[in-house]
Fold this sequence. Notes:
Radius of gyration: 15 Å
Largest sheet: 5 strands, parallel
CATH topology: Rossmann fold
Pfam family, one: Flavodoxin_5
CATH class: Alpha Beta
Strand content: 15-25%
Bound molecules: flavin mononucleotide
Number of strands: 5
Shape: globular
Number of domains: 1
Number of helices: 4
Distance between the termini: 9 Å
Structural class: alpha/beta
InterPro entries: Flavodoxin/NO_synth, Flavodoxin_dom, Flavoprotein-like_sf, Protoporphyrinogen_IX_DH
Helix content: 25-40%
CATH architecture: 3-Layer(aba) Sandwich
Protein name: Flavodoxin
GO molecular function: FMN binding; menaquinone-dependent protoporphyrinogen oxidase activity
Amino acid sequence: xxxxxxxxxxxxxxxxxxxxxxxxxxxxxxxxxxxxxxxxxxxxxxxxxxxxxxxxxxxxxxxxxxxxxxxxxxxxxxxxxxxxxxxxxxxxxxxxxxxxxxxxxxxxxxxxxxxxxxxxxxxxxxxxxxxxxxxxxxxxxxxxxxxxxxxxxx
Length: 154
Ligand SMILES: Cc1cc2nc3c(=O)[nH]c(=O)nc-3n(C[C@H](O)[C@H](O)[C@H](O)COP(=O)(O)O)c2cc1C
């Protein structure tokens, strides 16, 4: 099974920690959108897309990358994010990303989210929200998520 993870993680590297944990289990390289062409994803059996959340949206570079993925070259895909707070029901950014990928012909096989250190604005004055996260427990959960994905190919 050939897997790759496309990840943006611009604030504290929180999402990258999750991506690395998942990538370690899947034997997948983790790349920034600038390091791969959307067309190249067709070479993989499983593709992960992950980002931090900024102003109630996934990173615009990841969104632009997914916009540029051609339709109909789909394989299996999963999505993940870290954020200061859980996804609000009125703004389901991770679900929307999954829907977009499904619309492009990917089979969405999973989603993962956890909290990450958030020092946005005044939160920095108190040392941030979710200090130390993603923590060991979050990364163990991420690895468990990846093991389930890997088992699909056993
Ligand atoms: C400019 C900025 C805006 C943010 N906006 C949100 C937000 O709307 N909702 C939320 O839950 N977290 C928000 N956060 C917190 C980040 O989603 C969280 O810190 C995340 O783990 C960052 O991931 P990264 O370190 O991979 O970039 C924001 C953080 C920054 C720096």
